[in-house]
Specification:
This protein is α+β, with helices and mostly antiparallel strands. It is built from six helices and four strands; from the N terminus they run ααβαββαααβ. α3 (74-91) packs antiparallel against α6 (144-159).
Length: 191
């Protein structure tokens, strides 16, 4: 009886190792000509609940995504990102650094009266991690938060005129920026 149990455990562990190897290889295809790859919107038809593997090691990357959006729609664009997209992407391991609207310099004029410009910076564990997020449901499942993701992506798409993504690899500086204005006090030399 004990020999049969040991043999069954060995067979099961071999099967699990084979399955783990097959699952642990995310896609690595990059977008051609810097055209952003869209999320897999067919995911819910082929996905369900998901159980994830242990984190995979890789060389971290940062993406900078640029958008031209309809004039005056940044608050709506940002809200869709914060409430529907970022929570899901944080769940599947991406880390949002921030989103910014381009503003005119203090003595300059706006870039265009016809559109606004937006930048988003996101950190990923590796280029393979970024590629795997194109089919987000495969890592995060197709529950209510996935439905919120899809709705928010549709909002952003409806406001988008143009978008592109840039991939960066490097090192973050050791110190954060610091702004230390003077106090405005007046000092006099004493005799």
């Amino acid at each position: 009886m004990r020999l049969k149990l040991v043999a069954a455990c060995i067979a099961l562990s071999g099967c699990m190792a084979a399955c783990t190897t097959a699952i642990a290889q995310p896609p690595t295809q990059l977008p051609p000509n810097n055209n952003p790859i869209q999320m897999n919107r067919d995911g819910p038809q082929t996905r369900g609940p998901v159980r994830n593997l242990s984190p995979l090691a890789g060389q971290e990357i940062t993406t900078i995504r640029y958008w031209k959006i309809r004039k005056g729609t940044f608050p709506q664009f940002l809200k869709a990102s914060q409430e529907g997209i970022w929570p899901y992407f944080e769940k599947i391991g991406a880390r949002i650094v921030g989103m910014w609207q381009v503003i005119p310099p203090p003595d300059g004029k706006e870039a265009s009266p016809d559109y606004d410009e937006v930048y988003l910076t996101t950190r990923y564990a590796s280029i393979e991690h970024w590629a795997a997020t194109r089919d987000a449901a495969a890592m995060g499942g197709d529950g209510p938060d996935y439905a919120a993701l899809q709705a928010a992506l549709a909002v952003r798409q409806s406001l988008t005129i143009e978008t592109k993504v840039t991939f960066l690899q490097g090192v973050v500086g050791p110190l954060p920026p610091v702004f230390m204005p003077g106090t405005g006090e007046t000092f006099a030399k004493t005799p």
